[in-house]
Design goal:
3-stranded antiparallel beta sheet
């Protein structure tokens, strides 16, 4: 049961833009270019203007990119 909770909690984690860029090995400006072209992973925009990305959304987005390459 504890493993399931941890997995569910991890998938609901929210990543900062810096964390997403580091994981994807891209610059912040590249991320913003992708966002302008509407091909970036879905983001949550906070009132202060910062962006967050749900772990589950990033994983789903990456999987969809793998499907495109196949």
């Amino acid at each position: 049961m504890e493993g399931t909770w941890k997995a569910m909690h991890a998938s609901n984690a929210k990543l900062t833009l810096a964390e997403v860029c580091a994981e994807l090995r891209i610059s912040r400006s590249t991320f913003y270019e992708w966002r302008a072209k509407r091909c970036a992973p879905p983001c949550i925009k906070l009132p202060n203007g910062n962006l967050l990305v749900r772990r589950s959304d990033l994983d789903r987005w990456l999987e969809s990119r793998e499907d495109m390459a196949a």
